[in-house]
Amino acid sequence: MAKIREIREEDLNEVYEIERLSFREPYPKTLLLIYSKICRETFLVVENCSGKIKGYIIGLIKWNILGHIISLAIHPEHRRKGYAKMLIRELLRRFKVNGVKVVRLEVRVSNKPAINLYSKMGFKIAYTLKNFYLDGEDAYVMYKVLD
Ligand SMILES: CC(C)(COP(=O)(O)OP(=O)(O)OC[C@H]1O[C@@H](n2cnc3c(N)ncnc32)[C@H](O)[C@@H]1OP(=O)(O)O)[C@@H](O)C(=O)NCCC(=O)NCCS
After folding, report:
1. Best mutation site among 53, 88, 108, 117 for ligand 1 pocket (most ligand atoms within 8 Å of CB)
2. Ligand 1 test: best mutation among 74, 92, 107, most atoms within 8 Å of CB?
3. Whose CA is nearest to atom 32 of ligand 1?
4. Cα 85 from Cα 23, distance rounded (Å)
5. Assigned domain for 93 exists
6. Using one digit for the tens of pLDDT, what is the confidence trace for 50-109?
7. Is 82 close to ligand 1, i.e. is its CB under 6 Å away?
8. Pocket test for ligand 1, best of 24, 80, 106, 140 (most atoms within 8 A of CB)
9. What percent of the chain stands above pLDDT 90?
10. CA 142 to CA 103: how far, in whole Å?
C-alpha cells in the first residue's frame, strides 16, 4: 500500500535522485532543501510499505490564495501506477484547506504525459510562455480553480 506524507530532511537524497532521473534541468539539492523548509505541509512524497520513496510533489502557496505546483516526478520504474494522481489529489486537498482558490503550474509543451495527467485532473491550458526553459523550449501555463 502506498502512503503519502510530508517530506523529511533525510528523504532529500532519494528525492534528488528521482529529480535527476526525471528532468533535463534538475533542481539542485540545495533548492529542494529550501523548498522542504518553506513548503512544510505541501512538499509531499509517496512511499511504499517498506519506506522506499517512489515520487514527490512540491506545492507553494503564494498570497494565501494561489497554489503553485513547483515540481512533480515519479521514479521512472514506478510510472503509470497512479502515484502522480495520488500526489496531486492530496496536494489539492491541502491547498484547499489552506484557502487556495486557484492552482497554476508550468509544463514543457512537449511533455505529453504530464499534460495528459494535468488535463485529467481538471487543469486547463491558459497561455504559452515563450523560451521558458534554459534550452529554449516553451511552457504552457495550466490552471485549475478549486471549488
Ligand atoms: C508525468 C508523471 C509525473 C506522471 O506520473 P505517473 O505516476 O506515471 O502518472 P499516473 O500513473 O498517476 O497517470 C495518470 C494519468 O496521466 C497520464 N499519463 C501518465 N503517463 C503518461 C504517458 N507516458 N503517456 C500518456 N499519458 C500519460 C494518463 O492520462 C494517466 O492516466 P491512465 O494511466 O489512466 O491512462 C511522470 O511521467 C514523470 O515523473 N515524468 C517526468 C517528470 C515530469 O515530467 N514531471 C511533470 C513536470 S510538469
Report:
1. 117
2. 74
3. 80
4. 19
5. yes
6. 999 999 999 999 999 999 999 999 999 999 999 999 999 999 999 999 999 999 999 999
7. yes
8. 80
9. 96
10. 8
Which amino acid makes up residue 58? Answer: I
Ligand 1 centroid to residue 104 C-alpha, Å = 17
Distance (Å) from CA 81 to ligand 1 centroid:
9
* 99, part of any domain: yes
User: Which pLDDT score is estimated for 147?
Assistant: 86
Does the residue 81 lie in any domain? yes
Q: What is the pLDDT of residue 69?
A: 98
**For the chain, first and last CA: distance in Å?**
29
Number of domains forming the structure of the chain: 1
At which residue does the C-alpha cell 520513496 appear?
53
Enclosing domain of residue 57:
3-104
Average pLDDT in the chain: 97
**pTM of the complete model:** 0.97
In a domain, 16, yes or no: yes
Distance 74 CA to ligand 1 centre (A): 8
35-29-117-49 Cα dihedral, nearest 10 degrees: -90
